Amino acid sequence: MARILLLEDDITLGDTLCELLESEGYELSLVRLGNDVLDLTQEQSFELMLFDVNVPDYNGFELLASLRESGDTTPCIFLTSLNDIASLSKGFEVGADDYLKKPFDFDELTCSYKSTTT
């Protein structure tokens, strides 16, 4: 069973994504704060990270850059409403494997996951 770390501060979206992904057989760890990501990645390993960018206490871009600098190569997909070219470029610059603009279709997310892990 693939383990996914989801960083999402929108309660409704986070809970919905957890339900949908768990119904597909994935094991989810949902966190709402960037600092919680740092704690969890020290304790557990994940096959995929899904990060919102604008979250309390840590910008998703900064968070992924920090994880990459520490040697964490876990595939990461940004899920964000930021849709300008500069944000898209920044996401890939800090090490994202994919970038989905909100709102996105659930099938788009599962296709992105499969492409980052194969």
Brief overview, please?
The chain is an alpha/beta fold.
Description:
The chain is α/β, with parallel strands linked by helices and 118 residues long. It has a single domain, classed as Response regulator (Rossmann fold), CATH 3.40.50.2300. 46% of the residues lie in helices and 19% in strands. It contains 5 helices and 5 strands; from the N terminus they run βαβαβαβαβα. The protein has a 5-stranded parallel β-sheet with strand order 2-1-3-4-5, with helices on both faces. β1, α1 (11-23) and β2 form a beta-alpha-beta unit. The protein is globular. The mean pLDDT is 88.
Spell out the blueprint of helices and strands.
Layout (H helix, E strand, L loop, with lengths): L2 E5 L3 H13 L3 E5 L2 H10 L4 E4 L8 H10 L6 E5 L4 H9 L4 E4 L4 H12 L1
Parallel strand pairs: 1-2, 1-3, 3-4, 4-5
Tags for this model:
globular; 118 residues; alpha/beta; five-stranded parallel β-sheet; Rossmann fold
Strand order of the largest sheet: 2-1-3-4-5
Distance between the termini: 15 Å
Number of strands: 5
Q: Under CATH, the topology is which?
A: Rossmann fold
CATH superfamily: Response regulator
Which structural class is indicated by helix and strand composition? alpha/beta
Mean pLDDT: 88
Helix content: 40-55%
The portion of residues forming beta strands comes to 15-25%
Overall CATH architecture: 3-Layer(aba) Sandwich
- Please write the string of helix (H) and strand (E) elements: EHEHEHEHEH
CATH class: Alpha Beta
The tally of domains stands at 1
Tally of helical segments:
5
Largest sheet: 5 strands, parallel
> What are the low-pLDDT stretches, counting only 5+ consecutive residues below 50?
none
Net shape: globular
- Work out the radius of gyration: 13 Å
